[in-house]
Amino acid sequence: MEQKGLKTPHGQRPCVIKCHPKRADILAVGFENGEVSFVNVSNLRTFSVAVSESSLKFAGKDVKSYDEDDQLVAVAGLSWDPHEDNLIVSLDDGNMAMITF
Description:
9 strands, three-stranded antiparallel sheet, 0% helix, four-stranded antiparallel sheet, single chain, 101 residues, NE0471 N-terminal domain-like
């Protein structure tokens, strides 16, 4: 019997889960390792983005989000734009990113 469900990236635990404001079948899930997964709950398809590994623009400079021990930084918060398919991601180190879904 095949088991279906959300496969977490590298065994990481989810920190934040937010439903899309207009599409009830879409969830955004933020993980301890800085990844964000988009999940279609009707068919359990997922798409993941490693936000804390991506170069983030801050004051015109590229930065990476690692803590003092060179560990990836966890997702602290997720917020959908109510009028667009944009997701604002905040990380534990204070950096933010916007993902267009």
